[in-house]
Amino acid sequence: MGVANELGAPTISTLGELRSSGHVQKTLREEIRDNLLRKLAAGDDPWPGLHGFESTVVPQLERALLAGHDVVLLGERGQGKTRLLRTILGLLDEWTPVISGSELGEHPYEPITVASQSAVAAHGDDLRISWRHRTERYAEKLATPDTSVADLIGDVDPMKVAEGRSLGDPETIHFGLIPRSHRGIVAINELPDLAERIQVAMLNVMEERDIQIRGYVLRLPLDVLVVASANPEDYTNRGRIITPLKDRFGAEIRTHYPAELAAEMAVIRQEAHLVADVPEPLLEVLARFTRNLRESTAVDQRSGVSARFAIAGAETIAASALRRATVLGEDTAVARVVDLETAVDVLGGKIEFESGEEGREAEILTHLLRTATAETVRQHFRGLDFALLVEAIEEGATVTTGSGVSARDVLTGLPVLGESELYDDVCERLFGDGGGSTDGERACAIELALEGLFLARKIGKDTDGSETVYG
Fold first, then answer.
1. Would 10 be classed as within a structural domain?
2. Which site among 89, 215, 319, 353 is 20 to 30 Å from 433 CA-CA?
3. Given 208, 239, 254, which residue is the final one in a domain?
4. Element (H, E) at 138
5. Which residues contact 248 (CB under 8 A, 6 or more apart)?
6. CATH of the domain at 140
7. For 180-239, how does the pLDDT look when each residue is reduced to its tens digit (9 = 90+)?
8. CA pair distance 179, 175, nearest whole angstrom
9. Residue 289: inside a domain, yes or no?
10. Dist. CA 179–CA 103, nearest whole Å
11. 186: which DSSP letter?
12. Last residue of a domain, one of 221, 254, 287
């Protein structure tokens, strides 16, 4: 295909050179199909960064793309619908030739607008071509009630009319998002939010692949893959996808939240931007917390509990750890169990509760967080004997922690348990051999064990401002 330039694009610059190179034009759907089959045959993952969809959503989407279907994804908020749609662009060729200056990015072999057809006729093999990267062939639109037909399809450009062209001249058209996505992918998020008359305007684009603007039809053989996302509840809350438009989509695929705890944690690790170290056990607590909320009868499950809830929770506890480390002069900022409560303080607004639960929101969140913490403790500390620690506390020993207590102070305040290696065992259970190498990690492990003993009613707990005392 010719030598690549410094940007990686081929250096072929004319139609004649393109023909001589042996370049073969493919339709958009053929291009996606061939690249998907190549990745599958090579064992490559076509969907990097997606977790929990491997045996459910992904096979359905792959079948839809192989069939050349337009796709709508249905699912509650925070299920990764938009990320999944954006990943499809990875199935496009990295570079594709376009007629230089063409408004719709037409292939040099197949000009579809009057201007491009005239250019090909005038210049022949000397026609200048450019190379478009795959990232330029993906357009995304968040559907809003004020979206117009002009935004998506196009409208008459009054400036072009003022230049002397007649209203019936195709060159007076200012093309909208969908025609400008010719030979690419157009994604519409929250499709039911589009007014029904706007959805009607999409019917011809999706089936006949032409566009109708203000009383006249442009027969443009558009090569566009239309993908969309929607929340099923939108059909009754804000709007709906009109039946004829639903019929135009070849595939309607339901998404879901991760079925496995490991997938939930993988999403948090991947998406959260953490300003401090957050140990894996705390991410597990947040993942279990989120899953408990999705099963709670006190939460409106029609709205769903977004993956962003746990992501924001991880970022919040990391920020809490960074603040403590800065105030107390700790060398390393590491999140601990005491930071989990800060997530409850700020995340309540991300949850829709049932109408009968007014005033109990904080109580419900606190209860479910404690449940998640207890589940994590049971998972990691099962079979570990805490009798010596409980006995020491019953005899009057106390352990002081909290948002205003450094990790080093937590560790130095632990009761001496004779020759017991309990504290090392606790760290090893959570972090493996050699784990718990920093004061922050060891304090996190000890706090999780103490919180587990408190939740099991083995020891007491008293919180006062920035200090928490187990005793």
1. no
2. 319
3. 254
4. strand 138-142
5. 70, 202, 203, 206, 207
6. 3.40.50.300
7. 899 999 999 988 888 888 888 888 777 777 676 666 666 778 899 999 998 876 544 567
8. 6
9. yes
10. 9
11. E
12. 254
Residue 268 and residue 204 in one domain: no
> pLDDT by residue (tens digit) across 147-170?
888 888 877 666 665 565 655 556
> From CA 187, how far away is CA 229, in angstroms rounded?
8
Q: What is the dihedral of CA 140, 142, 145, 147, to 10 degrees?
A: -30
pLDDT tens over the chain, length 471 residues: 554 554 678 889 999 999 999 999 999 999 999 999 999 999 999 999 889 899 999 999 999 999 999 999 998 888 989 999 999 999 999 999 999 988 889 999 999 888 888 899 999 999 999 999 999 999 999 888 888 888 888 776 666 655 656 555 566 677 888 888 999 999 999 888 888 888 888 887 777 776 766 666 667 788 999 999 988 765 445 678 888 888 889 899 999 999 999 999 999 999 999 999 999 999 999 999 999 999 988 888 888 888 899 999 999 999 999 999 999 998 889 999 999 988 888 887 888 888 877 778 888 888 999 999 999 999 998 888 888 888 888 888 888 898 888 989 988 888 888 768 888 888 888 887 766 678 888 999 999 999 999 999 999 888 887 788 888
Give φ, ψ of 174 to 5 degrees.
-100, 115
Residue 4 gets which letter from DSSP? B
DSSP 167: T
Rounded distance, CA 178 to CA 197, Å?
Answer: 16
- Packing angle of the helix pair 280-295, 340-347 (nearest 10 deg): 40
Are 297 and 195 found together in one domain? Answer: no
Q: Which domain holds residue 436?
A: 261-470
Residue type, 28: L
DSSP 49-76: T--S-TTTHHHHHHHHHHHT--EEEE--
Q: Amino acid identity of 452? A: G
- Judged by DSSP in three states, 128 sits in strand
Helix, strand and coil in the chain, % to nearest 5: 50, 15, 35
Sheet holding 467-470, edge to edge: 399-401, 467-470, 461-464
Residue 216 is which amino acid? Y
Residue 73 phi, psi (nearest 5):
-100, 125
144 and 85 housed in the same domain: yes
Provide the whole-model pTM. 0.85
Phi, psi (degrees; rounded to nearest 5) at 246: -55, -40
Residue length of the chain: 471
Q: Measured on CA atoms in the order 12, 15, 19, 20, is the torsion positive or negative?
A: negative
The verdict on residue 4 lying in a domain is: no
